[in-house]
Amino acid sequence: MAVKPMLHYFNGRGRMECIRWLLAAAGVEFEEKFIEKPEDLDKLKNDGSLMFQQVPMVEIDGMKLVQTRAILNYIATKHNLYGKDMKERALIDMYSEGVADLGEMIMHLPLCPPAEKDAKLTLIREKTTNRYLPAFENVLLSHGQDYLVGNKLSRADIHLVEPLYYVEELDPSLLASFPLLKALKARVSNLPVVKKFLQPGSQRKPPTDEKKIEEARKAFKF
């Protein structure tokens, strides 16, 4: 029986959530070992599991992989979610990097000082509706296909749908003007393996709140 990937991170979204999404979309069952205190992280560092002394780290196929993009690249390649040739892979990389920029802004919002939160939220709304969502809507409009690249599900679609959920958490109206993105979100969400991941009780993590931030501060000493 194949050994399930083991994910090492704290019990929250952060930089591991996109990995959870990709594994789920690939139909891969995984286990998690949560970092709950500094000693948990120190143990991983001291036993040589963390090449750069930081997480996320995923144990998979006999390797201990770190660096989020490297982990995602491996999973996508292994499970045929990375295009059929170099040109498709270049597009998938380009779209995925754009999505990562959007996700980074949203991920850092809960860490923002209260006095700066409204301004940060305004900036996220502006960039979401004027930069990122129009760009991806136009990609879908330009070729009229169901998915971003090659008319086939790829990591780019999965990476995009994940922050579309976060955008809706911030303000459901932000997606209103992007019918093709709403359709993509529904299409990917209705894939059986993704639908299962979106159900309550799955390994998908809830929005980051003050409690989760405090847990992360305790685990990572920041």
From TrEMBL:
PROSITE patterns: GST_CTER, GST_NTER. The keyword Signal does not apply. Residues 85-208 form the GST C-terminal domain. GO terms for cellular component: cytosol; extracellular exosome. PANTHER family: GLUTATHIONE S-TRANSFERASE, GLUTATHIONE S-TRANSFERASE A1. It is an enzyme of class 2 (transferase). The lineage of its organism: Eukaryota, Metazoa, Chordata, Craniata, Vertebrata. Residues 3-83 form the GST N-terminal domain. GO terms for biological process: glutathione metabolic process; xenobiotic metabolic process. CDD domains: GST_C_Alpha (cd03208), GST_N_Alpha (cd03077). The gene is GSTA3. It comes from the Eukaryota. GO terms for molecular function: glutathione transferase activity. Belongs to the GST superfamily. Alpha family. Its EC number is 2.5.1.18. It holds the Pfam family GST_N. This is Glutathione S-transferase. The keyword Calcium does not apply. Keywords: Transferase. It catalyses: RX + glutathione = an S-substituted glutathione + a halide anion + H(+). Gene3D superfamilies: 1.20.1050.10, Glutaredoxin.
